[in-house]
Amino acid sequence: MENLSKCANKRNYEYTDEEIKKMFKVLNEKYMQLKAAFAATSGQEKETFKF
Question: At the N or C end, where does the chain have fewer CB atoms within 10 A?
Fold first, then answer.
């Protein structure tokens, strides 16, 4: 996310408002998939690697 925020500098990059909307749509979809994956495994007890 931090690396992606560097793209917000319009002095270095060109993009339209429509491209911004598309990017955030995809990011939101991927975020929701990731969140669902963690929710699906939450509370399941099994031996796993832990720090």
Answer: C
